[in-house]
Amino acid sequence: xxxxxxxxxxxxxxxxxxxxxxxxxxxxxxxxxxxxxxxxxxxxxxxxxxxxxxxxxxxxxxxxxxxxxxxxxxxxxxxxxxxxxxxxxxxxxxxxxxxxxxxxxxxxxxxxxxxxxxxxxxxxxxxxxxxxxxxxxxxxxxxxxxxxxxxxxxxxxxxxxxxxxxxxxxxxxxxxxxxxxxxxxxxxxxxxxxxxxxxxxxxxxxxxxxxxxxxxxxxxxxxxxxxxxxxxxxxxxxxxxxxxxxxxxxxxxxxxxxxxxxxxxxxxxxxxxxxxxxxxxxxxxxxxxxxxxxxxxxxxxxxxxxxxxxxxxxxxxxxxxxxxxxxxxxxxxxxxxxxxxx
Length: 342
Prior knowledge:
The protein has 342 residues and is of the alpha/beta class. It has 13 helices and ten strands.
């Protein structure tokens, strides 16, 4: 979680304090949002980061960037409410953590925010949660309940939290593809369990962070900028990609052949377990998203919100692969070897 405090000398122009709970699956997201918000330094003066592990590298990075880091100990709603009150924050940005108790931690934080007098809330949710089957994709579906809980405060006159809500449904982070960098470098392959026929639109993490920064720093008569207040923003990448098209984009960007390899869900699970530092629950979330792709439930793009909010064009897949070319480009000294499926 991160908190921003306004410059007191210009109260009418400055954004109130904002709180974030960092997402461990994409640990760069909190620092990316912080960097993006820092571009609006005339509206934001200081930052406090409420984190579950103050000793983590990302927490230390936030501190080095000027954030006041505070340990978040979930489980006591009353204590959480006091912590939020003590910061003096009037705006909260919630990024559900990659944790086995993600749902409970997020619910506690939203409830505490209601009781602490916070008036503006931005929730980073997930694309696909509305298509997720509660039985087949339960981790994805949890975001629907968090959205409902966040937006329900709009009709609750007893709390100021409903004055200025906003939800960003972020698409599948393109940075998740970095999990397969070892195969890309050694085999020239992107092994994904998404089938051959359907598509999805990976979004650059920085694009989501930029939209969030605009929302958090914007100011209107009732809290957030009126153009953003009350919005359900769906933010995906600008290009629908089947596996082969994603590999073609990588080939074009890297200047070397990259091939798509459709692997089984079982193998994908093994790859995530061996190559990802994410919590097991977050690995399940990623696998559930892949299953949505196979079911044909991600065959769309949504870039209108990104364009309207930032005035820019979202990052194309080729741009993404160029940015991370050092991670993906095949090592010529390694001979390509096919993995054996079981």
